[in-house]
Write a structure and sequence with these properties.
The structure holds two protein chains of two kinds. Chain A is of the alpha/beta class. Chain A has one domain: 3-Layer(aba) Sandwich (Rossmann fold), CATH 3.40.50. Helices cover 38% and strands 24% of the residues of chain A. A six-stranded mixed sheet of chain A has the order 6-7-8-3-9-10. Chain A has a four-stranded antiparallel sheet with strand order 2-1-4-5, with helices on one face. In chain A, strand 9 and strand 10 form a beta hairpin. The radius of gyration of chain A is 18 Å and the shape is globular. Chain B is mainly α. Chain B is built from ten helices and no strands. Chain B is globular. The chains are: A alpha/beta, B mainly alpha.
């Protein structure tokens, strides 16, 4: 564990009321790393992800991002979120705005770009995710895969230093998953630092620098994908991977 | 198969043409109503350029003479002349009804939006908003007007500078009353609409670094206000009719004028039939207008859209 980890999560715990949903979760990432969080539903992986941009509040532990304490009460949360992009399972696109409108809103209102600059940036980002033809389509006029790509473009338009993906393909029909994964592969190739919650084991296997297996709010096992997938040390990891595999 | 569906198609076509005839009649009636009002108002503002102020646009005697010569309508000629006789007063009253409704609705909206937002997203302010809404919705509107007019004697505080613009000072007391009361009702409609905006979009707004208020302004309101249009139209329509309560604090709007004429002539049935028809025309205009607005701002996939 080096001092210059880009993201260092240390002993993070969280309770919802009486119920503890995260137990001393720790892991770290370097700049440009891809870390994939896997685990059964309810294992706390989405909650862990949301603690990183403070959409969920961890009560104990430390999350250092680029040397800054994310959990500090003095932190400007909006400032943090400017630098951390997030992609949601349910896309969460702004239903009243076109694809360009969705992507341009952050640059326009948060970064203070002019109308024209924000629109140009939005168009660039939409082209980056392969939606050059859909600039003026409303979310309801787009397929699920296209909507999720708008969601990715919306996060990218803020030029984040870290991207969080919360089960980005779980709400998609199987034939639409590929186009979203393709965009994510592209980001990996560009060197984006990504923290990904997913059930797409093939994606994890292909691009993850580290896979973290969470169960019941605890890190059960972590390691490079080839080790975790081929030779899991913990019995629970093996059982989970078998269950997932039988569904593929 | 095709022969079985044909009668239905024909019926649909007949229904379609019926609808368009109906629409044409409605548009014609509306044009006549608003044309008459506009000409009457302009004539009065310009000091009687067409006919002397207070005179009907067409002479009642001429109307009576014309109808008397038409078989079947002759029996109604005198009534028609009487109605024409009172049109200048009704036009004056309608102007105030339109002004009171329009201004109160607009000002009420300005208050209603923050009320609804604090109600949904506020903590302490949510209780303040709730208390305001329940108080104003839970007490009679007429009682509220009486408190403002008789109780607080607000009419005496209205500066002379703004009096005479639309009418007497008391009009502003009525506008204040309808604004405060209407805001409570509008807030309820808007609140319901805001709550139907998906939570996930708010999360997404926060996730790109918008503050809570910015998210409400840029994400929630544009959608919520669109959702609110159909139910908000109800408040518009109610207010047109409730504005008649202003007559009880001596505002000479449409109802007050009609009541005065009726008291002098005892022709209650005829006068309130005509007055009722005028309220109906105002209400129909309002609801058609709002359907237009809803269509104009409709966004694919958002809310009911162009459903009638």
């Amino acid at each position: 564990m080096s001092d210059d980890d880009f993201l260092r999560v240390t002993d993070v715990s969280k309770w919802y009321g009486e119920e503890q949903v995260l137990h001393d979760v720790s892991f770290e990432m370097d700049r440009g790393d891809v870390t994939v969080l896997i685990g059964p539903s309810g294992s706390g992986k989405s909650t862990m992800l949301r603690c990183v941009n403070r959409l969920a509040e961890a009560q104990e532990g430390s999350i250092l991002l680029d040397g800054e304490e994310v959990l500090s009460p003095d932190l400007d949360v909006d400032e943090l979120r400017r630098e951390v992009g997030m992609v949601f399972q349910g896309f969460n696109l702004f239903a009243h705005l076109t694809a360009v409108g969705n992507v341009a809103l952050g640059p326009r209102r948060v970064l203070g770009l002019s109308e024209t600059e924000a629109r140009e940036r939005a168009e660039d980002q939409l082209e980056r995710v392969g939606l050059g033809e859909q600039f003026d389509s409303y979310p309801a006029e787009l397929s699920g895969g296209q909507q999720q790509r708008v969601g990715i473009a919306r996060a990218l338009a803020m030029e984040p230093k870290l991207m969080l993906f919360d089960e980005p393909t779980s709400a998609l029909d199987p034939e639409l998953i590929g186009e979203v994964l393709e965009v994510m592969h592209g980001l990996v190739d560009e060197g984006m630092t990504m923290l990904v919650v997913t059930h797409e084991m093939s994606f994890a296997r292909a691009v993850a620098d580290e896979v973290v297996f969470l169960d019941d709010g605890r890190v059960v096992e972590r390691g490079p994908p080839e080790q975790l997938f081929e030779r899991p040390e913990e019995e629970r990891t093996g059982r989970f991977l078998e269950r997932i595999a039988s569904h593929d | 198969m095709s022969s079985a569906t044909r009668p239905a198609t024909v019926r649909e076509r007949v229904a379609e043409s019926d609808r368009s005839v109906g629409r044409l009649l409605l548009v014609a009636a509306g044009a006549l109503f608003w044309g008459w009002l506009a000409v009457s108002w302009v004539n009065r503002w310009l000091g009687g350029v067409l006919v002397p102020v207070g005179q009907p646009l067409v002479p009642p005697a001429a109307v009576e003479a014309t109808l008397a010569g038409v078989p079947g309508l002759a029996a109604y000629a005198a009534d028609a002349a009487f109605v024409v006789e009172m049109t200048p007063d009704l036009a004056r009253g309608t102007w105030l009804t339109v002004v009171i409704t329009g201004v109160s609705l607009g000002l009420g909206f300005v208050i209603a939006v923050p009320l609804a937002v604090t109600r949904v997203y506020g903590r302490f302010s949510s209780w303040v908003s709730l208390a305001y809404t329940e108080l104003l919705r839970g007490t009679p509107l007429l009682a509220q007007l009486f408190v403002l007019y008789y109780g607080l004697n607000l009419a005496s505080y209205v500066p002379g500078a703004v009096s005479g613009v639309f009418a007497r000072d008391v009009v502003w007391v009525a506008i204040l009353g309808f604004t405060l009361n209407g805001a409570a009702y509008q807030a309820e409609y808007i609140r319901g609409a805001l709550e139907s905006v998906e939570e996930g979009q708010i999360t997404a707004g926060r996730a790109i670094g918008l503050s809570k208020l910015e998210t409400i302004y840029h994400v929630v309101l544009p959608q919520g206000l669109r959702y609110a249009i159909p139910s908000w139209t109800n408040e518009f329509v109610y207010l047109i009719k409730y504005s008649s309560l202003a007559g009880f604090i001596t505002v000479p709007e449409l109802y007050y004028r009609a009541d005065q004429i009726a008291a002098e002539t005892f022709r209650y049935t005829l006068i309130f039939l005509v007055t009722g028809a005028m309220y109906l025309a105002l209400v129909l205009t309002a609801s058609k207008l709002m359907v237009r607005v809803e269509d104009r701002v409709a966004i694919p996939g958002l809310g009911a859209g162009s459903e009638e």
